[in-house]
Amino acid sequence: MALAGHIGDPATARSGLADPAPTVRATALGALERLDTLADDDLSTALTDADPSVRCRAAELAARYPQVALLAILEDPDPSVAEMAAWAMGERGEAAAVDRLARMASGGAAHADPLCREAAVAALGAIGDPGGLAAVLGALDDKPAVRRRAAVALAAFEGPDVEAALHRCLDDRDWQVRQVAEDLLDVG
Description:
Blueprint: H1 2-7, H2 10-15, H3 22-34, H4 40-46, H5 52-61, H6 79-92, H7 98-105, H8 114-127, H9 133-138, H10 144-153, H11 160-169, H12 175-185
Helix pairs in contact: 3-5, 5-6, 6-8, 7-8, 8-10, 10-12, 11-12
């Protein structure tokens, strides 16, 4: 199936979308993308696939397809799919997703999974909408990886709350959080 995307065979690649094997369906999406024949409808359908690996691949590819709706998939029952949807929304700069991403970053969405929280915080930083600032600030009290993402995400925001949070990060027990704060405050 992957070969079809490299040799210019869109018919074979498209036939893989209906294959019983999830790995073939996910690979077919990538082959169609490589051939520049992947349609919004292909992704929308794949986002409802029974297999999470297909939904995850579709969410990843949807980062380049802004017409494909991703909000609902933030609450996918599989954390890897929800994480990828958050990443894709950040890549797209999808301001309409800020409230849902903020809930996910706070652990209040369908997933309390740390990777989902981390991806949501990163997406909020990528989007840079002021509506996401409270969630980013709240993430500074999370696990180290989430705190690191939150410190980096603060670069997208400004104001006294951001400045104060960065100064607090200078005393974080994680050296990477401290380093990010030093870099952003230019106090190294």
